[in-house]
Design goal:
The chain has helices spanning 70-82, 106-121, 130-141, 147-152, 189-194, 202-218, 226-229, 244-255, 277-288, and strands spanning 12-23, 27-45, 50-57, 89-96, 155-161, 164-170, 176-182, 259-262, 269-274, 293-296, 305-306. With 307 residues, it is α+β, with helices and mostly antiparallel strands. The two termini are 26 Å apart. The structure holds L-homoserine (HSE).
C-alpha cells in the first residue's frame, strides 16, 4: 500500500501503556496488576520509507531503532494481523519509564503499545477491540499475565482457553498500595522460564491453587489476608539461583510480616502494603541494600490509554 491508498487512515497516533507486575506470588502465568508507571508511544507517517524508532528514557541506549524494535515489530504485526498493509514510512517515538528486564512488564507494554498504535493507524482498527488485542498480544508474548493488565488495567485474572488468551478485570482494594524495589541488575524472562521444572508435586500445585484463589479475595476485599495469600510454592524457589538477592529480600520481608513477592519473572520485588506504604518502603530499602530503587506506586485502573 502507498501513502495515497492510506488517505483515509490516521496520519498519527499516540498511546500510553502501564507497567505491570505478574504472578503476584501464587498466580504464576495467571494473575497480574497494572501500575501507575507508563511508557508513552507515538507514531507519525513520513514520506521517507522504512521505520525509524526514537527512544528516550529507559532502554534508550540498548533497544533497536529499526523494524526489529518491539514496539515497531508489534506495530507492523498488527497490520499483518488485520489484513491491512502498513504505511510506507513511519517515525515511532517512545518515551519510556518502565525499567527493562526487571520484571515490570516492559516487553508487554511495548507489545501492547505497538499493537495499539497499529490499531489506531489502520483502516481496519475497529476489528481489533481490546479483547482481540489481548488474544493477539498473548500469542506474541506466550502467556497472558502481563499483557492482560497492560490492556485492561487494574488487577487481572487471565487464562488461556483453546490457545486463546482471556482475562477478567478486578479492582484492587483502595487501601492496598504497591511498593516496588527495582533490582539494580536485569534478568531475561527466558532465563527465568528455563529454570522452571516440567512437573511439580501435587502438594505444591494445591498450595498455589489455594493461595491464588485466596489472593483474589484478599486483594479486592480483605487485605488482612495478603500475607498468606501471596505465598508461593511453584516458581520463586525454583528460580532462586537467578535472583538470589531478590529471593532473600522476599524471604526477609515476609519474615517481618510484609506481603512481598518477586515481581513477574524478577528480579524486582513487589510488596503489597496495607495502610503503611512508607513503612513498607523503609523496610524494603533497609533490607535490599545499595543499588535498589524503592518506589511507592499506585495501581493503574486504566490499561491502554489512547490520546
Ligand atoms: N508469568 C511470567 C513468568 C511473567 O513468571 O515467567 C513474566 O513474563
Amino acid at each position: 500500500m502507498n501513502t495515497e491508498q492510506r488517505a483515509s487512515g490516521a496520519q498519527r497516533a499516540a498511546v500510553s501503556v502501564p507497567a505491570t507486575s505478574a504472578n503476584l506470588g501464587p498466580g504464576y502465568d495467571c494473575l497480574g496488576a497494572a501500575l501507575d508507571l507508563r511508557d508513552y508511544y507515538r507514531v507519525e507517517l513520513t514520506t521517507a520509507p522504512g521505520v525509524r524508532v526514537h527512544v528516550t528514557g529507559e532502554g534508550a541506549d540498548t533497544v533497536p531503532r529499526d523494524h526489529s524494535n518491539l514496539v515497531a515489530s508489534s506495530f507492523l504485526r498488527c497490520f499483518e494481523h488485520l489484513g491491512d498493509t502498513p504505511p510506507v514510512g513511519v517515525d515511532i517515538y517512545c518515551t519510556n519509564a518502565i525499567p527493562h528486564g526487571r520484571g515490570l512488564g516492559s516487553s508487554s507494554a511495548a507489545t501492547v503499545g505497538g499493537l495499539a498504535l497499529g490499531r489506531a493507524m489502520s483502516v481496519r482498527g475497529d476489528e481489533l477491540p481490546n479483547y482481540a488485542l489481548l488474544e493477539f498480544a498473548t500469542e506474541l508474548e506466550g502467556h497472558p499475565d502481563n499483557v492482560a493488565p497492560a490492556v485492561f488495567g487494574g488487577f487481572t485474572v487471565s487464562w488461556v482457553e483453546n490457545r486463546v488468551g482471556r482475562a477478567v478485570q478486578l479492582q484492587p482494594h483502595p487501601d492496598v498500595v504497591p511498593v516496588v524495589a527495582i533490582s539494580p541488575t536485569p534478568l531475561a524472562t527466558s532465563v527465568a522460564r528455563e529454570l522452571m521444572p516440567a512437573e511439580v508435586p501435587l502438594a505444591d500445585a494445591i498450595f498455589n491453587v489455594t493461595r491464588a484463589s485466596l489472593l483474589c479475595h484478599a486483594l479486592t476485599q480483605d487485605p488482612e489476608l495478603l500475607l498468606p495469600a501471596t505465598a508461593d510454592a511453584l516458581h520463586q524457589d525454583h528460580r532462586a539461583s537467578a535472583y538470589p538477592a531478590a529471593h532473600q529480600l522476599v524471604s526477609t520481608m515476609r519474615e517481618h510480616g510484609r506481603a512481598a513477592v518477586i515481581s513477574g519473572a524478577g528480579p524486582s520485588v513487589l510488596a503489597l502494603a496495607y495502610g503503611d506504604p512508607e513503612a513498607v518502603a523503609a523496610d524494603l530499602s533497609r533490607h535490599a541494600g545499595s543499588g535498589w530503587d524503592v518506589r511507592i506506586l499506585a495501581f493503574s485502573a486504566a490499561g491502554i490509554i489512547e490520546s
